[in-house]
């Protein structure tokens, strides 16, 4: 994603979920989203086939539970 796409996506998503984004927080949010997009890119480029199985569901337990 290019910077303009990231800005549009962040603005649209914040508006959609009713999340107020303070002007002083905006640079950090945009920076983090850009980082997350870069980290996700190799995963999104990985081709899956119909034979690939989904991962099992992670179900957390309370600390100290058997």
Question: What does the secondary structure layout of this molecule look like, with pairings?
Answer:
Blueprint: H1 3-17, H2 26-45
Helix pairs in contact: 1-2
Q: Can I get a quick summary?
A:
The chain is mostly helical and 66 residues long.
Describe the protein's architecture and organization.
The protein is mainly alpha-helical and 66 residues long. The chain contains two helices and no strands. Helix 1 packs across helix 2.
Give start-end ranges of low-pLDDT stretches.
Answer: none
Q: How many β-strand runs?
A: 0
End-to-end gap = 45 Å
Radius of gyration computed on alpha carbons: 18 Å
Number of helices: 2
Percent of sequence in beta strands: under 5%
Largest sheet: none
Overall morphology: extended
Level of helix content?
A: 40-55%
Task: Give the topology string: H per helix, E per strand.
Answer: HH
Q: Please state the structural category.
A: mainly alpha
- Return the average pLDDT rounded to an integer: 92
Features:
mainly alpha; 66 residues; 2 helices
């Amino acid at each position: 994603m290019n910077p303009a796409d990231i800005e549009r996506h962040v603005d649209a998503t914040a508006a959609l979920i009713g999340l107020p984004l303070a002007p002083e927080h905006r640079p950090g949010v945009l920076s983090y989203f850009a980082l997350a997009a870069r980290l996700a890119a190799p995963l999104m480029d990985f081709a899956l086939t119909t034979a690939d199985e989904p991962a099992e569901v992670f179900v957390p337990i309370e600390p100290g539970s058997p």
